[in-house]
Write a structure and sequence with these properties.
This protein is α+β, with helices and mostly antiparallel strands and 189 residues long. The protein has helices spanning 3-38, 43-55, 181-188, and strands spanning 70-77, 84-88, 92-95, 101-109, 115-124, 132-137, 143-145, 150-159, 169-178. The strands form two sheets. A five-stranded mixed sheet has the order 3-1-9-5-7, with no helix packed on it. A four-stranded antiparallel sheet has the order 2-4-8-6.
Length: 189
């Protein structure tokens, strides 16, 4: 191969990398637009709908189902990169669909410097994620931590009363990782 063909390949790969990087930054605003159009995943509208439903004594068409109990397990994962203590304070709770609950997670920055971290949630089984609604969560935005700072971070949620009847168990798992400095600064602007 000639040096000219290497330059062409390097140029094409550089364009691909730059495009991928730009797409990664565009995902947050695109997600916000998708949420505003569809109403799905928008924590403000979920909180508002929940508040209206509880004021009227109902949540959706059914209200809280006091006869049904669903077990929610909480898990915390850390990638191999970074140095954190991250865990659920409560490992499992039993909930009534349609009723608002709160669970706490503990995070401790052991990196030796100020940093920003982000939690990425996952519902298991994933096909049931549409019935699990977070109204407030530390995962909605990056979390700034001072060196050696530790804090309790809440997640407020409810399970939709329309959750299929055969489901009696869900798991809410978070992966907690460091956010690169340039990405953290961009989200704060």
């Amino acid at each position: 191969m000639s040096p000219g063909s290497h330059r062409g390949l390097v140029f094409k790969l550089s364009i691909f990398v730059a495009g991928s990087f730009a797409f990664g930054f565009a995902l947050v605003p695109l997600y916000d637009v998708l949420c505003s159009i569809t109403g799905l995943g928008n924590q403000k509208s979920l909180s508002r709908a929940y508040a209206q439903g509880t004021q009227q004594g109902t949540l959706g068409a059914q209200g809280a189902d006091q006869q049904r109990v669903v077990t929610i397990d909480f898990l915390a994962n850390l990638p191999s990169v970074g140095n954190w203590e991250f865990r659920p304070i409560t490992k499992s709770i039993q909930v009534h669909p349609g009723q608002l609950y709160e669970a706490d997670f503990f995070a401790h920055n052991l990196t030796g410097h100020d940093t920003t971290a982000q939690a990425v949630p996952d519902i298991v089984p994933s096909k049931l994620a549409a019935w699990f609604h977070k109204t407030e969560c530390f995962c909605f935005s990056p979390q700034n931590f001072k060196r050696d700072e530790q804090r309790v971070m809440p997640v407020r949620f409810f399970v939709d009363p329309d959750l299929p009847g055969y489901v009696g168990h869900l798991t809410l798992a978070y992966t907690f990782y460091d956010v690169p400095t340039h990405a953290a600064n961009r989200t704060q602007d």
